[in-house]
Each structure stands twice: as C-alpha cells, then as structure tokens.
Amino acid sequence: LTLNNYLGIFTDSNYVPNSQICLRDFQQRIKNDVDKIHSNNRRFAGVIVPTGGGKSFIAMAEMMDRQDSKILYVAPRINILRNFKKNIVKYVADLDPEGLADDELDIIVKSCFPYLELICYQSLNPKDEEKLASYKADYIILDEIHHIGGASWNRVVKKLVDNNPTSQVLG
User: Fold this and answer.
1) What is d(CA 118, CA 104) in angstroms, rounded to the nearest whole number?
2) pLDDT confidence of 152, banded at 50, 70, 90?
3) How confident is the model at residue 157 (pLDDT cuts 50, 70, 90)?
4) Do the strands 116-120 and 139-142 form a parallel or antiparallel pair, or are they unpaired?
5) CB atoms < 10 A from the CB of 58, how many?
6) What's the CA gap between 154 and 158, in Å, rounded?
7) Is the torsion defined by CA of 139, 109, 142, 20 positive or negative?
8) Model-wide pTM > 0.90
9) How many whole angstroms separate alpha carbon 126 and alpha carbon 87?
10) HEC-encoded secondary structure of 117-167
11) Measured between alpha carbons, how far is 144 from 146 in angstroms, rounded to an integer?
12) How open is the CA angle 110-133-171, to the nearest 5 degrees?
C-alpha cells in the first residue's frame, strides 16, 4: 500500500456524474459522510481538510447533487470566488477557463448552476435581515469557515443560517 494509493491519487473510480470531477478516495469518503449527515436530517456538516486537500472539489460534488437547487456559496475573498468559478468552468462545464473575463465565467457558471449565488462574507450585513432572508437557499456552503471566528462574523452567519431555516449547510 503506497501513500498515493491510500490518498486515492491514482484512483479513477470516484467520478462525479455529469462532470470531469474525480474525487480522491479520501474526498469521496468525506462526501459520503456529508451525505449521511444530511440524510439523517442534520443541517450542518463540517469538512476539515488541509490546505490543498480539495475542499472545493468536495463542495462541487455536493453542488452537482443539487444543480437545480438554490445554492449560496460564501467565501472570505473575491479571489477565492474567482478560483471557484474557474474550477466550475473547468470541471463541470469542461471548458478551459484561462483567459476568460469575469462576465464570461459568470455566464458559464450560471449555465451549470442556474440558482447559484457566490458572495463574500463582507457583503453580509447582520442588520439587513431582509437581504439575509431573501437568499432562500436550499444549500449554503461556508468556505474557509474558520474566518468567521470573530464576534461580528459569527453574528452575521448565524443570522444568515437562521433566516434560511430549511437549508442544509456545509462548512
């Protein structure tokens, strides 16, 4: 048993249907655990994977199960959102994202996930209850959730989740 085999680096049996995403074995095990958590009527599933471990691919695999659902993806920085869009273009739309302008990326992403909204934590305002409730998300992905450790971020994320009471949450 080699480390590569253990991590599933050379495995090609974990393809996500209708995409070019091939999860490593450990990512597939995590996705299966997330699915089990959500199927047991639990709202919140947390994923802890080291930097470069492919959390975005796990999130995209979960999104593929919900392509026609309202998905809200929240990240701490615009460059994370842009990289995530590029991954969607490359691995879901099966197109080369290099050289595409932001508006071109947005059009392709929207064709893959018609009800996906990508926002930064900074755009959430705890006083704007109407906006927080307007998302009506079925699935909320909180990327880099450790960034919300401060009191102000905890409050706004709590309000976001409270104002979307039927959503499932991945963080």
Assistant:
1) 15
2) low
3) confident
4) unpaired
5) 24
6) 6
7) positive
8) no
9) 30
10) EEEEHHHCCCCCHHHHHHCCCCEEEECCHHHHCCHHHHHHHHHHHHCCCCC
11) 5
12) 65
pLDDT bucket at 106, cuts 50 / 70 / 90: very high
For residue 38, the model assigns a pLDDT of 96
d(CA 92, CA 16) in angstroms, rounded, equals 9
For 72, the 3-state DSSP assignment is strand
Other residues' Cβ atoms within 10 Å of the Cβ of residue 50: 7
The answer for residues whose C-beta is within 8 angstroms of residue 39's C-beta and 6 or more apart is none
Give the span between the Cα atoms of 90 and 22, in whole angstroms: 12
What was the pLDDT predicted at 111? 98
- pLDDT grade for 158, boundaries at 50, 70 and 90: confident
